[in-house]
Amino acid sequence: MALYHDLYRLNTSITGWHVRVKMLRIFQVSTFSLGKSLGLILVDEKGEKVEAFVDKAYANYYLEFLEEDSWYTIMKFKVFLNNGPIKLTKSLFNIGFLNDSIVKDCDLLNDCFYATFTPFGAILNGTTDHSYLIELVGYVVKAGELTYVDPQPIELSGYRLSFVLKDKE
């Protein structure tokens, strides 16, 4: 029986990680410095989420066979501090795929959704943690236009999209 590391144990001082994760989200990321790379949101069976990145050299390869809502085992990857300007998870670390990373299909562990929704009330009263993106259920009742407000074209914080959400209830 194979042993897997829980995502909450990830840190930069250890190598030889072996994790079993569900692929929650797969998305392409375009930046001026890195080109088109691949972003992933992974979750383990305990519900711990982590963001992962695949360099542009390997993005198309992984895009061919990775599927959202499927389970995989991953070995031979690098662990980085999660210190980017936009954090997609509250994990302190990110995973970076290497040229010799090993990703294999594994049996379905469960069909859990693994969402951690933030209540509207917590947003309205200002008690949400602003250090990472939150998950929210509601619907858009009004959306403005994407507006560029920063003179630095590389700054992601320079874009604004105003919208009004209504609680699902």
Write structural notes for this entry.
It comes from Cardamine amara subsp. amara. Residues 4-106 form the Replication protein A 70 kDa DNA-binding subunit B/D first OB fold domain. This is Replication protein A 70 kDa DNA-binding subunit B/D first OB fold domain-containing protein. By secondary structure, this protein is mostly beta strands. The chain folds into 2 domains: 7-105, OB fold (Dihydrolipoamide Acetyltransferase, E2P) (Beta Barrel), CATH 2.40.50; 120-167, no CATH class. It is built from 2 helices and 7 strands; from the N terminus they run βββαββαββ. It has helices spanning 56-65, 120-124, and strands at 18-31, 35-43, 49-54, 71-81, 93-105, 138-148, 159-167. The chain has a 5-stranded mixed beta barrel. The longest helix has 10 residues, at 56-65.
